[in-house]
Structure formats: C-alpha cells, structure tokens
Write the structure tokens for this entry.
Amino acid sequence: MSLRAVNAIYTYEMRRFFRTMAQSFISPVISTSLYFVVFGGAIGSRIDQVEGVSYGAFIVPGLVMLTVMTQALSNASFGIYFPKFMGTMYELLSAPISFLEIVAGYVGAAATKALFIGVVIMVTASFFVEMQIAHPLAMVAFLLLTCLSFALFGFIIGIWADNFEQLQLIPLLVVTPLVFLGGSFYSISMLPPFWQTVTLFNPVVYLISGFRWSFYGQADVPIAVSLLAIAGFTALCLLVIWWIFRTGWRIRQ
Amino acid sequence: MPSIVSVRGVRKSYDTGFEALKGVDLEIEDGEILALLGPNGAGKTTLISTICGISQQTEGTITVGGHDTLKDFRAARSLIGLVPQEIALEPFERVENAVRLTRGLFGKRRDDAVIEKILRQLSLWDKRDSKINELSGGMKRRVLIAKALSHEPRVLFLDEPTAGVDVELRQDMWNVVRQLRADGVTIILTTHYIEEAEAIADRVGVISAGRILLVEDKDALMRRMGQKVLRIELDSPLGAVPEALADYDLQIEDEGRTLLYTYHTAAPRSGIGRLITGLTQAGVALADVSTAQSSLEDIFVDLVKENAA
C-alpha cells in the first residue's frame, strides 16, 4: 500500500472540507440548536423524563448519530462521485495504486469530517443540556465505527450512482427514514407493541441504542447486539467494496 | 533501440460484443516520439487507456519498462504519465494543488522544486495560485500536462493534445513535446492531423478499426502519403495508352475519356511536363486537367484494403 497516495487523497479531500469551513461548521451548529429549541424546549417541556433522563439530554446521542450518519454518507458518496462526474477518475485508475489506497483516502476523509461534526454537535449540546457519558470508551468506539461504516456505505453509493438524483436517492429514501424511525428522538419502549417489533428490523435502532447506552447506561436492545450490528454492517460494506474493485464494477471498463 | 512499451496480441471487447481492439502488437522504442494516427473510433484512446490501466484488455499482454501492466501494475504505472483527451479537472482547485495531488497519487515525495520546474516549463508558474475554472481552455490543457509530468514519468501519453487548440498553442505544445523528448521522455501521442505527426513524430503508427495497420518511420510514411493524382480529361475517347507513354503507368477510366497519372510530391521530378508533351506529340487532345492530393481518408481506405488482401 502506498501511504503517500493515501495521504495525497486524504489531504486533498480534507482541504475541500476546510475550504468550506464556514458551512461545514456553522450549519450543524445551527441545526442542532434548532433541534434543541424545538424538541428539547417545546416538546421536551411536556415530556419531563425518558427512562430517568431529561428529554433534552435523551435526544443528544440520537441527534449526534443522525448527523454523523448522514454526513459520513453524503461526504463519502459525493467524494467519490465527483471524480466520476468531472472525469478525473482517470487519474485514480492510472495511478500505481489499488482500491486500498482509494478507499482509505476517500473513506478516511469522509469519516474524519463526520467525526468532526459529531464532536461539534456534542459540544453545542453541552451548552443546552446536562450530559453525562457513562462509558466514554464505548462512546468513542461507537462513534468511530459509525463514521467509518457509513462512510464506506456512502462510498458504495457514490460508485453506484450515475447521476445526482441517484446520489440523493438512497440517503433520502432509505437512510433518513431509517434514522428518524430508529429511535433518535424517542425510546422504542414508547411505541405500541406492534411497532416495537417492526422497529427491530431497522438496523439503525441498534446503532442509536448502543450509542445512547454509552451515554446513559440504558439501551433498547442488548449492547452486544448493537456492537455486533455495527461490526457486521462495516464488514458487509467492506465486502461489497472489495467486490466492486475486484470486478471493476462501474469504474473500470 | 530497446522497447519501453510492448503490446502483444491485445484484444479488447466490451459486454455489448463490440471489439475495440482486434489483436494489437506494438513496440514503442525508448526515447522516441510515436504518433498514433487514426480516424475517430479507430481505437486510439482504447489502446492508450488499456496501457495506462483505465481499462483492461480481454486478451494479450502489455509491459511497460519490462513490468506487466496487470501483474505488476504498480511498477508499470509509476513509469507512465497520461494526458487525457477530455479536459477533466476539478474546477475549484488551485493549479499547484492539483499538480501536487497527482505527484502524491504516484507515491512520490512532495518536491516543490520539481513542481516549480514543471509549472515554469509549461508557462503556468504565474497561474499556480489560480483556480482552475479561472483558466482558459489552453491553460487547462497545460495543467493536465503538468499533472501528467508531476511524477517525472519515463513514458508520456498524450491523447489528442491539440484537438480544439488554436494554432499558436499548438506550436507551443509541440515545443513542449520536443523539449520533453530532449529530456529523454518517450512520448506517444494520438492525433488525426497528419501535419501534427509530420511536425514532431519520429515514427507514425496508423490504427483503424481496432488494428494497427502499420508502424513506420515518419519520413517513409510521409512519402507514401504525399501521393497525388493527375486527372486528364480528353476530347475524344482513347482505346489504349499510346505506346510512347507506356512507362507512365497510366490508368484509363470513363471508357477512355479520362487518364489518371499517380505521382509523388516528394519525388525529384513529377514527370507531368513530359507526360503532357508526350500526349500532345501522340496527337491526344486534352479537354481539362486537374490534380488531387490523396487525403488521409484515402490512405486509410488503401491501407485497410491492403490489410484485408
């Protein structure tokens, strides 16, 4: 593996992020603040506590996950789709590098950006609510794995997409609903029994539940299942990416 | 001279069944400028893309500097710089960063002195901090060349470097290519302009419908391409060529009303004067005379016919 090539892609991608620093930084801060005003302030005043945690604090892990997932996904999918769209893909294909360097560079950069924004949101949240982190190591692990796996997933979408519509399709049609219905803003136990069962088929539930556990020590599903789910998802994405580069699907004629 | 790039029996077919390369053999000599001449859709770009790793051959082997482009792709590709036909650049990136990215992708240590040398050579130094979308089309093409040179390749592929480029820039481009050759870089360029091949190439390869029809020393090919046809229309039909003019190898067409004489512009004497005198002496009355240069297309047609025969 050529570390210089990975570094070249990574710094190039990160520079794009820092070039638009204002947007990258301000927009998550504003939207998080809005969530706190609307959900925490308006709705939260009617729900005093969820499982012993104030509603405002309860939604922080879900909010972080929501943003981290969508950011990792959109950054990675856009990152690799852009060279396809601009025609600069030729450069990656004719360089003496394999898929390892390309994935490491693009996914690494997308995951870093998502992580950065996730931290910004947590810091913003700490101004609004009392937060505690019961299991800091697990929290970091969940956060990193989520950034990584969704960046990998985004990379796959970016390779698959032939146009900007397709690039938006999966994030809008699949991921956003799954994340919203994944218990970002509520506990699964608040749902009627039938919907509780349905929810268990939503993979995002396991991620948000596990992440929330690392904050408040409570989870909708067992923590081991959550870890298994995120590890499995990461492995699945890696497998698909390995296959893409082996076969040259949508990349190499 | 040893070959730096060696292409053997390379075929490339697509899922649609279209065969873009139908068994290409090509040896590119170290340090030469080879022009690949061919009409649109001949397979020029496919051949280059396959050597550079953008597409993969269905059959056959390619080596660059002795390294197989599939089995040992890292070693093979690090010797190659590629300037694509289409201008493909990120519009908001700055020139110097774009060039530096390519160097990094090729695993070379960051070296500002090398980048500066290349940018100066291509008259891009003053534009190093400009965004790419602020540059003119010709400047963008230079950026593509700068990127391809950023990792100091031994072999440079230029895919139609002067397509859609104005005359002045074309001259500049040719000067750059000559300069690179002087530095020892092997250059392969594709074009469909004969004059381009004429101006800078050492050897010329002609490719058509996925086959290399010939690879020849430029001067030899230019002599072949410099063929002209003199068309003589006669007042009254002629049954046979007059005996005195037998060595002219004239062709009779139009039931004896037209005589065709083929000659080379590069030949010391065209023989036209003597031919016309000879015709007059033989009592043949001329109605009209015209000449036509065989076009590139005619030459392709001839070559394809020869090839099929």
Observations:
- Residues 193 and 199 of chain A are 10 Å apart (CA to CA).
- Residues 3-247 of chain A form one domain.
- The interface with chain B takes residues 2, 4-5, 7-9, 11-12, 15-16, 19, 82, 86-88, 90-98, 248, 252-253 of chain A (CB under 8 Å).
- The two ends of chain A are 23 Å apart (CA to CA).
